[in-house]
Design a protein that fits this description.
Its main location: cytoplasm. With 356 residues, this protein is an alpha/beta fold. Helices cover 48% and strands 13% of the residues. The strands form 3 sheets. Strands 1-4-5-8-9-10-11 form a 7-stranded parallel sheet.
């Protein structure tokens, strides 16, 4: 494997000094880019796009051709794991992801099995290998998975939800069943992420997109312990290099100190918490990733620059910051707004680091 030409992102995750704040964007390969929409059209469907290593590689690289980003993230979907468990993932027009066979009956839950990442999910590993080859040591590749709780939400609800009624009803009435789903899913996520690392992912991220819908007590029972089990089970070093991990609970700012205690390298923040205050709470225990409101990118260039600088100034010159949005980039974002953001972050953070 060639050495990285730009390892700023990895060094920031390990809280090592960097000349500037590295950045990437959640959903950076996506519908806001016209070239992505062209590839998606050629693929015929979103699932075809995910399951074609060559097309997944193509869209992973598209934002890097436009912007001076410091990392690539594997193009895939968080629901590949439950799909590999046999729940029958499909995408209904205008409705988002759905499962043909959501988990409702006890026998289905008891029969849940860990998929072999080198069988049902080999297409993801093939994409990782192909992307690493195409990146040719330019920037690191991030692998990812949904968190056990977030995957369980989709698996029980059967798709997206406004109120999480079915999965929360199970949490309160049959916690034993939910814990069984979470336990099997945790082992599946660990196997999946480790297979990505073995295939070439140089950092991994766990997306706990729906952790913030839980009460504090429920979060500490149904999400956080399973996040810790994932982190504990991850490969931490490969080919003599550390493989850092990031944990992101959307809406999890209230519990940042608890999240920082599970042994992860970095904690992702949504936009609802000041990043300087977050750093004061966790100190040097973890790196922080975030946390600009994605809707700032609909504002004029001077407003984008101002808000990006606000995040950078709040974090200060301390090591351990990866700049990102507080959630995925909107499909309606003007591509030129991202150019303003990337240039501002790199330029302003260099000034902060140099004391200018």
């Amino acid at each position: 494997m060639s050495r990285l030409q730009n390892d700023t992102f990895l060094r920031a995750l390990l809280r090592q000094p960097t000349d500037y704040t590295p950045m990437w964007l959640m959903r950076q390969a996506g519908r806001y880019l016209p070239e992505y929409c062209e590839t998606r059209k050629r693929a015929g469907s979103f699932l075809n796009l995910c399951k074609s290593p060559t097309m997944a590689c193509e869209v992973t690289l598209q934002p890097l051709a436009r912007y001076d980003l410091d990392a690539a993230i594997l193009f895939s979907d968080i629901l590949t794991v439950p799909d590999a468990m046999g729940l029958g993932l499909y995408f209904a027009e205008g409705e988002g992801p759905r499962f043909e066979r959501p988990l409702r009956d006890e026998w289905e839950i008891r029969n849940l099995a860990i998929p072999d990442p080198h069988a049902e999910l080999q297409y993801v590993m093939d994409a990782v290998v192909e992307i690493r080859r195409a990146l040719n040591g330019s920037v690191p590749l991030i692998g990812f998975s949904g968190s056990p709780w977030t995957l369980a939400c989709y698996m029980v609800e059967g798709g997206s939800s406004d109120d999480y009624r079915k999965v929360k009803a199970m949490a309160y009435s049959r916690p034993d069943l939910l814990h069984h789903i979470l336990s099997v899913t945790t082992d599946s996520v660990v196997a999946y992420l480790n297979a990505q690392i073995e295939s070439g992912a140089q950092a991994v991220m766990v997306f706990d997109s729906w952790g913030g819908v839980l009460s504090e007590a429920a979060y500490h029972e149904f999400s956080l312990p399973y996040l810790k089990r994932v982190v504990d089970g991850l490969i931490k070093e490969r080919d003599g290099e550390r493989v850092p991990n990031i944990v992101f609970t959307k809406g999890g700012g209230l519990w940042i100190e608890s999240i920082a205690d599970i042994g992860c390298d970095a904690v992702g923040l949504d936009w609802t918490m000041d990043i300087g205050r977050a750093r004061a709470l966790v100190g040097d225990k973890v790196a922080l990733q975030g946390n600009l409101d994605p809707n700032v990118l609909f504002a004029p260039p001077e407003a984008i620059a101002r808000e990006a600088k606000r995040v950078l100034d709040s974090y200060g010159p301390n090591p351990g910051h990866v700049f990102n949005l507080g959630h995925g980039i909107s499909q309606f974002t003007p591509p030129e707004a991202v150019s303003v953001l990337v240039e501002t972050v790199h330029e302003h953070s260099r000034k902060i680091r140099s004391g200018a």
